[in-house]
Amino acid sequence: MLGVTAGHVRTVLARRVTAALTSGGGVRMASHSHEVGDTVDMSKPLYYDSVGYPLPDRPYKEELSAADKSLKQKEKGPWSQLTKEEKMALYRLKFNLTYSEMKQPTYEWKTVLGGIFFFLGLTGLLFWWQSIYVYPERPRTFDEDWQAKQLQRMLDMKINPVEGLSSKWDYEKRQWK
Amino acid sequence: MSLPKPMMRGLLAKRLRFHLPLAFALSLFAAGIVKFGVTEPRKRAYEEFYKHYDPVKDFEEMREAGIFESVGPSKE
Q1: Taking CA atoms, what residue in B is nearest to A171?
Q2: Do A163 and B45 lie within an 8 Å CB cutoff?
Q3: Are A61 and A93 in contact (CB under 8 A)?
Q4: Phi/psi at A2 (nearest 5 deg)?
Q5: What is the predicted ipTM?
Q6: pLDDT tens per residue, range A70-87
């Protein structure tokens, strides 16, 4: 279920990307009405390269040269008569990228990880500045001797005598067990 | 190309046949670990503590340490 919707989302994104790419350049939407020619007509079937959706709505090349048209005619006959180069040419007419080309690693994760670490570092510097210029005075309850007296009082009160703190203290020998 | 027709139905049932008993078994195992690793030792610890517990002695010890407000340490 999740795979279907994820693939669909990816397809929609892939469509926009490759449609923008195949339409020859910028992703200029219809909002800039004085710039014609770079807009993508989304009301027509789009071409997209997607690993999850193998058969796009239209073939890659729609304007066929004379040689392409004759090849398409030959395709209507028995395919055993096509040479290897002709078969590959037919593939490239219909599709832009092969599966192996689509699946090529992009190494985007390096950018992502780098960005994460960069912002973590930035946040660390922010926290450091904060600890110097924002934090109020340190409460006296954090002092060493206060903490020691606090621990002694807890042992005197026998806090958690069964399994917890006081159970670890040896009252006879006055030391930790 | 004549490939055999793939399985079209019963995919969830097939998965559940394997995973449901496994899930039950693992859950019981986890519960067993919690019971014998946590609850039983805890029960024994409490048993052991209260077997020879003298509340009066405990109170006197606390009193001598001076933590109470109602009674002070015994005057000697």
Answers
A1: B61
A2: yes
A3: yes
A4: -65, -35
A5: 0.77
A6: 999 999 999 999 999 999
Which residues of chain A does B37 touch, with a Cβ-Cβ cutoff of 8 Å?
Answer: none
What type of residue sits at position A60? Y
Query: Shortest CA distance to A50 belongs to which of A115, A2, A95?
Result: A95
A156 CB near a chain B CB, below 8 Å?
yes
Give CA separation, A76 vs A65, A70, A82, A109, A139, in Å: 17, 10, 10, 44, 86
What are the distances in angstroms from CA B69 to CA A12, A146, A150, B55, B60?
73, 20, 17, 18, 14
The DSSP letter of residue B48 is H
Helix, strand, coil percentages in chain B from 3-state DSSP, rounded to 5: 70, 0, 30
Spatial contact of A41 and A23, defined as CB atoms under 8 Å apart: no
Q: Could B66 and A156 be called an inter-chain contact, meaning their C-beta atoms sit closer than 8 Å? A: yes
| pTM passes above 0.90 | no
Name the residue in chain A with its Cα closest to that of B58: A158
Among partner residues B45, B46, B62, which is closest to A156 by beta-carbon distance? Answer: B62
